[in-house]
Structure to design on (399 residues):
């Protein structure tokens, strides 16, 4: 039998052990974590909608009509008219013919990839894709080829040398680096080599593009360019769940083939109503996006002036590159001692030697909040190994 306790101790020794925080109250920049009030810069609530009155009111109002549980899968008796209306809203929001709801983004990627590719096919995946994409590729039983991050030339060479059915999968915005995929170039090579392109825009929807419609529409790309678009509802949308959008034909195919859609209970119908209300706020939320971009610029300029190494990102995901696991954990702990939550991200989530602090900004943050974070970073000093070794404090892992 495996010695699980020894494995856990080894993770602690390598700076890879993870613990959970217990949050009380709603998700918002100033929250209570483990009984202490903190200013949080680690949530994916990019537009500040996780505690928005419009979505809360829509949820409460819907409960008396829809009840709470979905009670069955969509293909049994769980497909409520609230789900159908939300799918129509999501299709219209992403400028596509049809959409299909999934319980989580992870399940959407598992279900879609494994439905669209199988034995004898080839899936091409960006090296920095999210774990759900990686696992979906493995689950498909297709041949999987990775290409260097954002390297369209290498992908084109691989596509040209590969016969048969080909699926290319990429994040729209990469969750740990914050950069945007070269979507126009990817669409071009996929058309040239007859490959199907799927984009997971979990971190772009609500933030990028006209009225927050995402990274694909920010590049002016259509369903013909990107046949499959996956998005989550638990980030900028502020609720929970996920969807895939595309042509009516492709959505019908997924209804028949995507196992994580067929064999899962539908989301609570009231939650679908709340999500539709959130989409209304997003469409009318240009001021939120303008404010969020201004906060991003303020943080980047301030952090770089302090000597911190940032990743090349213009999105609300602003990683501070540190390097070593222990150094990243020590910097995170130093900020926590000053009342701020900024998560340390370590392998295998990011490559070995590229541990970082993942700063995420929200439209619910103020300029004063960003200045508080910058002041704390200034007091700790830039994360060079020699500097961080002087942070003599117990290290407690947070991610």
């Amino acid at each position: 039998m495996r010695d699980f306790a020894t494995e856990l101790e080894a993770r602690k020794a390598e700076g890879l052990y993870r613990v959970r925080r217990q949050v009380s109250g709603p998700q918002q920049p100033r929250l209570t974590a483990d009984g202490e009030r903190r200013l949080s810069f680690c949530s994916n609530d990019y537009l500040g909608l996780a505690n928005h009155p419009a979505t809360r009111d829509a949820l409460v109002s819907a409960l008396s009509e829809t009840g709470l549980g979905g009670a069955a899968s969509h293909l049994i008796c769980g497909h409520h008219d609230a789900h159908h209306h939300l799918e129509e809203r999501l299709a219209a929001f992403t400028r596509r013919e049809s959409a299909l709801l999934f319980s989580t983004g992870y399940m959407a990627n598992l279900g879609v990839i494994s439905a669209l590719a199988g034995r004898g096919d080839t899936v091409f995946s960006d090296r920095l894709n999210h774990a759900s994409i990686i696992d979906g590729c493995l689950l498909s039983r297709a041949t999987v080829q990775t290409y260097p991050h954002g390297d369209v030339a290498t992908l084109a060479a691989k596509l040209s040398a590969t016969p048969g059915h080909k699926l290319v999968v990429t994040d729209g915005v990469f969750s740990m680096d914050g950069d945007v995929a070269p979507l126009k170039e990817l669409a071009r090579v996929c058309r040239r080599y007859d490959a199907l392109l799927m984009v997971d825009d979990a971190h772009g929807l609500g933030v990028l593009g006209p009225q927050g419609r995402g990274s694909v529409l920010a590049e002016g790309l259509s369903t013909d360019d990107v046949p499959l678009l996956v998005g989550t509802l638990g980030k900028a949308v502020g609720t929970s769940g996920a969807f895939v959008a595309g042509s009516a034909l492709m959505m019908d195919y997924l209804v028949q083939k995507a196992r994580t859609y067929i064999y899962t209970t539908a989301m609570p119908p009231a939650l679908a109503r709340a999500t539709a209300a959130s989409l209304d706020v997003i469409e009318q939320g240009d001021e939120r996006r303008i404010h969020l971009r201004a906060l991003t610029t303020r943080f980047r300029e301030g952090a770089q002036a302090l000597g911190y190494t940032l990743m090349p990102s213009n999105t609300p995901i602003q990683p501070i590159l540190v390097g070593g696991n222990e150094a990243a954990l020590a910097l995170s702990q130093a900020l926590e001692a000053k009342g701020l939550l900024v998560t340390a991200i370590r392998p295998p989530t990011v490559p070995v030697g590229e541990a970082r602090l993942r700063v995420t900004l929200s439209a619910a943050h103020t300029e004063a909040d960003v200045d508080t974070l910058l002041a704390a970073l200034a007091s700790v000093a830039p994360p060079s190994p020699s500097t961080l070794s002087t942070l003599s404090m117990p290290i407690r892992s947070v991610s």
